[in-house]
Specification:
The complex is a heterodimer.
Chain A lengths: L2 H14 L6 H11 L3 E5 L6 H16 L13 E4 L6 H14 L6 E4 L5 H9 L4 E4 L1 H8 L4 H5 L4 E4 L2 H5 L2 H16 L4 E6 L5 H9 L3 H5 L1 E5 L6 E5 L19 H10 L2 E5 L3 H14 L7 E4 L5 H12 L5 E4 L12 E7 L5 H8 L10 E6 L5 H14 L12 H13 L5 H9 L9 H12 L15 E2 L5 E2 L3 H10 L8 E6 L4 E6 H5 L6 E4 L2 E9 L2 E6 L19 H15 L6 H5 L1 H10 L7 E9 L2 E6 L5 H18 L4 E5 L4 E5 L5 H6 L8 H8 L2 H15 L21 H11 L4 H14 L2 H13 L1 E6 L8 H4 L5 E3 L4 H7 L1 E2 L4
Parallel strand pairs in A: 1-6, 1-7, 2-4, 2-5, 3-4, 5-6, 8-13, 9-11, 9-12, 10-11, 12-13, 16-20, 21-25
Antiparallel strand pairs in A: 14-15, 16-17, 18-19, 19-20, 21-22, 22-24, 23-24, 23-26
Helix pairs in contact in A: 1-3, 2-3, 3-4, 6-9, 16-22, 17-19, 17-28, 25-27, 25-31, 28-29, 28-30
Chain B lengths: L2 E5 L2 E5 L5 E3 L4 E4 L6 H7 L8 H16 L3 E4 L11 H11 L3 E5 L8 H6 L3 E3 L2 E3 L2 E3 L10 E4 L4 E6 L5 E9 L3 E3 L10 E2 L7 E6 L2 E4 L4
Helix pairs in contact in B: 2-3
Classes of the chains: A alpha/beta, B alpha/beta.
Amino acid sequence: MKRSELISLAENWFQSKNWKSFPFQQKTWKAFLDGKHGLLNAPTGSGKTYALWVSIVLQYIKENPDYKTKHTKGLKAIWITPLRALSVEIQQAAQRFANDLETGLTVGIRTGDTPQSERAKQKRQMPDLLITTPESLMLLLASKGYEKTFKTLTAVVVDEWHELLGSKRGVQMELALSRLKTVSKELRIWGISATIGNLEEAQDVLLGMDPEFRKNAVLIKSSEKKKIEVRSIIPEKMETFPWRGHLGLHLLEEIVPIIKASKTTLIFTNTRSQSEIWFQKILEKHPEFAGEIAMHHGSIGKDTRLWVEQAIRNESLKAVVATSSLDLGVDFAPVETIIQIGGPKGIAKFLQRAGRSNHRPGEPSVIYFLPTHALELVEASALKRAVKEEVMEDRIPYLLSFDVLIQYLVTLAISNGFFPKEIFPEIKSTFCFQGITEEQWNWCLNFITLGSQSLQAYDEYKKVEVTEEGLFKVESRQIAMMHRLSIGTIVSDSMMLVKYVSGGFIGTIEEWFLSKMKPGDTFVFAGRTLELVRLRQMQAQVRKSSKRTAKVVSFMGGRLPLSSQMSKILREELQSEADHKRNTPELKALSHIFDRQEKESIVPGENEFLIETFKTREGYHTLFYPFEGRFVHEAMSSLLAYRISLLVPITFSLAYNDYGFELLSDQFLDVQNVIDNNLFSSEYLFDDLQKSLNATELARRKFRDIAVISGMVFQGYPNKVIKTKHLQSNSQLLFDVFRDYEPDNLLYLQAYRETFEHQLEEGRLRLALERINSQKIIWKQCKKATPFSFPIITDRLREKLSSEKLADRIKKMTLKLMK
Amino acid sequence: MQITIEISQNHFSLHPSGAIFWEEKAMLLIADVHLGKVSHFRKHGSAIPAHVAYKNLEKLTEIANQFQPKTICFLGDLFHSKLNEEWQDFEKWVEYTKAGVILISGNHDIIPNYLYEDLGIRVYDEWVLDGFHLTHHPSELTGTFNFSGHVHPGIMMKGVGRHFLKFPCFYKTESQLILPAFGNFTGKYILTPTEMDEVFAIVEGEVICVSKK
């Protein structure tokens, strides 16, 4: 069949459904049939599944003209989805098209939830399309004879590629693709991504550095634009508006009419505990909603989550309080309205949430923004501009993630085994490892075979062995099994299951939260007040309680910082206030705050960098306002504190938020001295940062994931906590051992690299310092706290910087005593 | 660097290595060395630097040279696991050391006693000596003061703001003293002291009393 005939098959099907194909779908079909690779930029719910699945089916028809009567066996395509929850919807859509065209093609799912019997069946006979996750794909590469399974593959489609890109799951995907390119000769690689700032780079990462693949690739953008309308909830009386607090509960009454007026409303919060609190409070103030509102977040049991998702589709819920667990994927048609509580900190995230609401043709998606403190209203104003100007954040891909590489090499070694000579060029052709040196490669090989860089006398290290032919292979069945259980790059905190004494699973909570509780204590979780009855192994047994408690379950994992794109717009919004433009309703509502700020200090204009100093009972405050997001401020505050402490002996306590930071001291700080000594210089940045910050502490936290991913720490067999105890060590201990005995270990160094690149955003910090250096520094000596400073100086999460010796510092610290 | 404390007219030096020197008896008390742990992990595919294992014996040698004890008494968990290649190094160390060696066995000590006895090491379950009760698990025996290990005690110090630091420590109550783990590949378990307890933290090569008492 000719290309045009094939395409008319698809067009006819669309017509039979009373649909019309979009130009981006037609472009994708054509490109795919021409044998191209590519990246499709299309939003959720736009028909992106049909853009690629139709292509795959048409390709099959092209190769098998008698497709209606004769089915050719073998896997044709793999569809990668980051969320298991999405797989069912994709399966349904794909199966429908395959059936309607009478192709006889089958669609199967393989994820962590797939029962063993089903997996065994798949192994004997693969479906034609396999929907799976990056982890499950890796597990397929870990089984013997995988090359036979993948030989007939014509396409890998990576859905929601933007979600995987900035994470180690993305690296995992790059490595898997590098292998499949060799094994499957007819392979086409396609990605589907929402709009991000670095789409071209996203395509490069997906396709790798192989020039053949790059040359033969297209980037297709759907021109479908969703219109989005942002409405801020502005409190009527601004003077009652609190300066701090991150819950925004005082505005609760404002959202009630919004919920009542629409079919279904999704209320997004930034953290899981925040959603627990909001859920609780809405029901407390408006008991009439009982049974009509629900909650959805990542720690709630899967059954409950699925129930909630189904209830949204059935229109049996009025509102759902959710976290990012509902950001992605499944389209919920009945959702009419979105409410965002607190600054979403990033434009892409905000748009994604806004896009969750159903839009009738021609009508915009509406998202309400509820600020949790006054300055967040400026964020609302900035978001509106970002939406209008289509500014988007980048997703930064990981580079040289040796932990993922080591995991991957062991994976290959437990299935067929590998020859380094064959695998190295594949690795080197990925984006992540394009810069790997021979030396680093040999280091990784030594690591998995010798467990060190030189052969030790009588060493019993055992993992990967090298056969006489030079094949790298795992022989031990125990090691192979332990490795299979550890495949993956998502490392979670130690979790405990929460169950009713009478049976019935509620969800999972991080161990550290429960470890602080005694039997009889009550806490709020999954919208219920629960009493802890006992802790047994990794289970917390609870019963319902009618007691009132203020203890809401909390989770580690933090508040997101402002993205750099978002900070820039925010800065511009604020600066427009220096000229008294007040051209948005949000800024107008904040008038008296700006007036007060100008009375006590100034609102910095473009090219101005504001430093404020004043004295209170607490001491001498010095405030700086770079408006760069909390990570950059965290790094910049300790950098500056460190540099100042070189000039004068001084001890600071540091505080920061997304807008600025504070150095608090018991002695007066001469800001002129800071300016004269050029302390904002970006020279020696790396060295100074390493000395100033508790860089070690940050790296230690990063190392935890690295140790697990690279297989140094075994997290144990599922449901068998005790047996492997003699093999459990913690990553903290390993980190110390490397620091003291093997500081050139690549995995140990990687922890620092990740700290600087991904946590402290060294690159962004450098740019910020350069910007400050080009600005006019304005030092205001104020009489009292200014409106800008208030949210920062009242922050209790403080860190300390001092040049005193550790032992001397300990003497000033206090022992945590039993209460 | 070290702190000397007095218990029932006897003097004990708390050394930053985690060992205690009992002056009257010229005896070193050492808990939880966990020899063989590194090899055990390596055998199961976890690439902990191999030379970490030798450092334990180096540390033992150093401290023995410094105090020149008559006796070295290990308070349990001397070996972490079954026999492995670290045993040979330990044999050489026992041969080299001039002091008599005693092992109070602990829960990890699964190597048969006769292998120790072949090296001239006496093995006890517990030992009462001049009103002092030496055990692996913290124990109570009326009229005695107990020295033990097993717990790997550590403490958490709280600074201004939300500043926390953790250190290994010697942990003393009215009738007990728990030693920190001596081995360099051992974790610590954070204890929460009461007002009555005395805590001596090991901070960068110094022993510092951090409790009020």
